[in-house]
UniProtKB/TrEMBL annotation:
Catalytic EC class: isomerase
Top-level lineage group: Bacteria
Family listed: Belongs to the AIR carboxylase family. Class I subfamily.
Job description of the protein: Catalyzes the conversion of N5-carboxyaminoimidazole ribonucleotide (N5-CAIR) to 4-carboxy-5-aminoimidazole ribonucleotide (CAIR).
Gene: purE
SMART domains: AIRC
Reaction(s) catalysed by this chain's protein: 5-carboxyamino-1-(5-phospho-D-ribosyl)imidazole + H(+) = 5-amino-1-(5-phospho-D-ribosyl)imidazole-4-carboxylate
Species per Swiss-Prot/TrEMBL record: Anaerococcus vaginalis ATCC 51170
Protein name: N5-carboxyaminoimidazole ribonucleotide mutase
Domain spans labelled PurE: 1-149
InterPro entries found in the cross-reference section: PurE_ClassI (IPR033747), PurE_dom (IPR000031), PurE_prokaryotes (IPR024694)
Length: 160
């Protein structure tokens, strides 16, 4: 089981680090590449074609025009998860819209702006359809999340 993580530029590496960290927790193999859909289209086409036999899920991370995930989805029938990245001007809204607004027949599952951890969890959920061990790890993660909430103590005191 392997997930391919493709960043549009090195500036997306903090998000990729979150993806990698979570995939490592689940014991999922991964590969990280920097390939711009706009500046290196032929390289992206080549990579997706060559990696498709091993990669079961692709994660694209891009900001601004953010066409990376959509182009990946056009090149493969494997699931593609898009992570919109913040840019300096519009806070990632433009990347969110570019990633989520895909034409019929070429879907990209899209997580929140900068949502690296959720992208990794979604990739794990997709893989868990095939791999029972991941399903159990996901169940354990959810139990731990619930226990954390159940065991947190907070008492609200209204100002009087």
């Amino acid at each position: 089981m392997k997930v391919s993580i493709i960043m549009g530029s090195l500036s997306d590496s903090p998000i990729a680090d979150k993806v990698v960290s979570k995939l490592m927790e689940f014991g999922i193999d991964y590969e990280v590449k920097v390939i711009s859909a706009h500046r290196a289209l032929k390289s992206l086409e080549k990579y997706v074609k060559e990696s498709e036999d091993e990669s079961e899920v692709y994660i694209g991370i891009a900001g601004k025009a953010a066409h990376l995930s959509g182009v990946i989805a056009a090149l493969t029938t494997r699931p593609v998860i898009g992570i919109p990245a913040k840019s300096s001007h519009l806070g990632g809204l433009e990347a969110l819209l570019s990633t989520v607004e895909m034409p019929s027949g070429v879907p990209v599952a899209t997580v929140a702006i900068g949502g690296g951890e959720n992208a990794a969890i979604l990739a794990t959920e997709i893989l868990a359809i095939k791999y029972d061990s991941l399903r159990e790890k996901l169940k354990d993660m959810r139990i731990k999340m619930k226990e954390t909430i159940d065991n947190s103590e907070y008492e609200y005191k209204a100002n009087k």
